[in-house]
Amino acid sequence: GAGVSQSPSNKVTEKGKDVELRCDPISGHTALYWYRQSLGQGLEFLIYFQGNSAPDKSGLPSDRFSAERTGGSVSTLTIQRTQQEDSAVYLCASSFSGLAGGGETQYFGPGTRLLVL
Amino acid sequence: QKEVEQNSGPLSVPEGAIASLNCTYSDRGSQSFFWYRQYSGKSPELIMSIYSNGDKEDGRFTAQLNKASQYVSLLIRDSQPSDSATYLCAVNLGGGADGLTFGKGTHLIIQP
Q1: Strand, helix or coil at B55?
Q2: Which residues make Cβ contacts (< 8 Å) with residue B33, sequence separation at least 6?
Q3: In angstroms, what is the C-alpha Rg of chain B?
Q4: What single-letter DSSP state applies at residue A106?
Q5: pLDDT digits over A31-88, tens only?
């Protein structure tokens, strides 16, 4: 596609429910990143995929968060048993290969605005 | 713990003047540095990337990097009202396996 796409654009859920957020990277980009931006906070790095593999999951805030990527393209971020503190904008980015010493430009999608009531 | 620090502002600059945005980072091993612009309610978009000490110019924008001082800056010449946004400094340690560490951003206001 022309850019990174994310769905849904907005999600309102009740505390305790599970949510699934989707990211479709730029066509041909093998590296994919998830970030979270809370109100008044900077962007917080969550997880990175090189192809279908996530070398380091330590950035995920808790074990309620999980992410997967299949087919080297679409990724889903799942939050189980959502809490009010999970309310934030979840941003996905992609880069061409993720292998250039971290120097590649990351292109961001429009984000998913999650509100947990 | 990798940290990136920015003055949150707001930084108010008259139209046509030079806006100077500053950023310091804690990890001396950092290799790649980026400036993103984020309009309210929108996602970040890349303005400049810089990897070597010195200046890098692109149109009205100049990024400056000083690795010895662990300092990176962005200058915006001939500031326009459309430059009003939050500017995010982002740093990558390198190696390809890390995401970007972002500062909290500087809110820039260009006064007509």
Answers
A1: strand
A2: B25, B49, B50, B51, B63, B65, B72, B89, B90, B91, B92
A3: 13
A4: P
A5: 899 999 998 778 999 999 988 888 788 889 999 999 999 888 999 999 999 999 999 9
- Alpha-carbon distance B13 to B17, whole Å? 7
Chain B contact for A59, CB < 8 A?
yes
Could you give the CA distance from residue B34 to residue B47 in angstroms, rounded to a whole number? Answer: 8
Question: B34 vs A113, B15, B40, B82, CA distance in Å?
Answer: 24, 24, 19, 20
The model's confidence at residue A109, banded by pLDDT at 50, 70 and 90, is very high
Residue identified by tokens 């429009």 is A110
The predicted-structure confidence for B87-104, as pLDDT tens digits, reads as follows 999 998 765 556 889 999
Closest CA to A104 of B75, B3, B41, B32: B32
pLDDT of residue A102: 56
Q: Which of A7, A36, A41, A45 to mutate to test the interface with B (most CBs of B within 10 A)?
A: A45
Residues of B in contact with A47 (CB under 8 A): 99
Q: In a 10 Å sphere around its CB, with 0-12 CB exposed, 13-18 middle and 19+ buried, how is residue B29 labelled?
A: exposed
Q: With an 8 Å Cβ cutoff, are B96 and A102 in contact?
A: yes
Of B44, B93, B101, the CB nearest to A108: B44
Any idea which residue has 């503190």 for tokens?
A85
> Any idea what DSSP says for residue B61?
E
Please confirm whether the linkage preceding B10 is cis (ω < 30° from 0).
yes
